[in-house]
TrEMBL record:
It comes from the Bacteria. One of its GO terms (molecular function) is ATP binding. Gene3D superfamilies: Bira Bifunctional Protein, Domain 2. Its EC number is 6.1.1.7. It comes from Rhizobium lusitanum. It is an enzyme of class 6 (ligase). This is Alanine--tRNA ligase. Residues 9-235 form the Alanyl-transfer RNA synthetases family profile domain. Keywords: Aminoacyl-tRNA synthetase, ATP-binding, Ligase, Nucleotide-binding, Protein biosynthesis, RNA-binding, tRNA-binding. GO terms for cellular component: cytoplasm. The keyword Ligase applies.
Amino acid sequence: MNQKEVAYDIAGRLIHDYRDYCLSKGIDYACFQSVRPHDDTTLFCSAGMQQYKPLFSNPSHKGTLSNSQACLRMGDLDEIGDGTHFLHFTMLGLFSFREMTLSDAIEFWLEFLARTGVRPDHVTIHPDRIDEWTPLYRGRIPIVVDPECMWSDGSISGYCTEFYKDGIEIGNIVNPLGTCIDAGFGAERLDMLSNGTSPENALETLCSTVLKIIESGYRPGNKEQGYVLRKLLRRVHSLGGSLDHPFFQEEVERQNRLVRKYERLRHSYPDKSIEWWFDTHGIDPETISSYGT
């Protein structure tokens, strides 16, 4: 077994341990390995709470559940390779609708983190909640005031408290509507800190993300998820990487055709914009920028 397979095996065990921990608390658990979104607000699932949004806003619903959810955040594309950002990752989630208190959630996560061997260096709290929430930690963790400790998805919002280790945010607990709990911790970051596994480099992250999108049932195309997949395949190729998958070979051939087409036509249309080349001939901006025009 190579180093990467060992790392994935360890991460898998951490997710398995989280499942057992939740079940030991009498909390239902579900595992979602696809990055397909649960609603039409995002191209890919970006958070474990996405499918539960109706439950947060339903005042008559009461209950608690947990999950591990495969997530993908394209907003992190330019950050990958820095040792802390994962384009796709597994979020360990805990969600309570008018049942668990914030104090309960803090105790839940401090206990689980202790099991993983990851003790937070500090937590952050919004100044509006510093007096009310500080006592919930009972002096066990240093607290830093942070005015950015708020969260919103556009329709549901709340103050949050964030957990940090070695300068890295490992998770947070949001208090949506002041009555609910939405907590999410990154399995890969916890794995990295608790087991000393090395994060993937940028090219490895791109390749694994491409495979995750394909495994979730998507194929390259000109729109939405298909276009994102094509963009990532193109990025792998431009960085000198390779994938043993037909979609990658097809994209390399497509790029070669577009390069030849651009070479043939670019002198005839010297003043056309990048948008025109893409809309008219399907030639991607990266192809044009490689010519310095």
